[in-house]
Amino acid sequence: MEYVLLRDTAIRCSRIALGTWSMGGLLWGGSEDEASLRTIRAALEAGINTIDTAPIYGSGRSEELVGRAVSDYGRRDELVIATKVGLDWSGPSVRRDSSRARIRQEIQDSLRRLRSEYIDIYQVHWPDTSTPFEDTADELHRLLKEGKIRAIGVSNFSPEQMDAFRRGAPLHTSQPPYNLFEREVERDVVPYCREQGITVLAYGPLCRGLLSGRMRADTRFEGDDMRKIDPKFQPPRYQQYLEAVARLDRFAQKRFSKRVLHLAVRWLLDQPGVGVVLWGARRPEQLAGVKDCLGWSLDEAAMTEIDNIIEETVKDPVGPEFMAPPASAA
Predict the structure, then answer these.
(1) Catalytic residue among 57, 203, 238, 241
(2) What is the pTM of this model?
(3) Over the range 280-298, which residues count as b (16 or more CB within 10 Å of their CB) and which as e?
(4) Of 7, 87, 154, 327, which residue is least crowded by CB atoms under 10 Å?
């Protein structure tokens, strides 16, 4: 496993972290608790020491599963648990709320579910413009000083929002969506983080499974699976992405004896400024490819060929905007 040290902290993260969004079940067509627990144990055994979760993932279910697995593992000081704050699901729809009172309520709920006395990385899930960013940051800074959290992060924030946030607290990590097909953050977020020494935790490296190589034209998604409304999975755009994946897979096999999944994750690990890549899984077998993403790298020629393949095949690209909860009224 490869590891990275978060700047101005003693936190050492595995460069591949376990993402647990799908373990919550909601928006992923359901999940099974026992399979999720086995998945977390398999990740730890594979050298992954960093687990990313959030209260909103299954309305607390994902955090509870992480708490059970970590409690059974028993070596809490060897692990890095990252969770989030600032989304309220108590009403008819999810809303952003990063107020001081909401933070104080959520930290206690998360600590209880995680069965832990502290959280290693506490991240504001989405920017809440109804609360001054400095106030949100100041409250997280208080938690840092109290020892309830060890590092402060944000997710889905722009550079301007991070600037405002940093007026109230140090900022250690930023978690944006980033993958071969969703690269909007290369324009501003990633360069900003590099300049400021903020570690990027990239989520969605396989673009909701598109880059896994398992999707087909006749693949169907059940229940509340978000891919039923994801623009990338709708015709005619879906076929463009499938063709890009097929060409990337052929390139990965010919050049590196790897598959498209390994290529997509390695590409992200090799991007300047990216410290950690979140690997989402809810079954142990979904972690089988982790080892094939480590111990090699992409040269400049390979990076150029990858760019060319995507440019030639994806004529109607679209970003991850559909995932954003409604913005708060300023």
Answers:
(1) 57
(2) 0.91
(3) bbbbbebbebbebbbeeeb
(4) 327
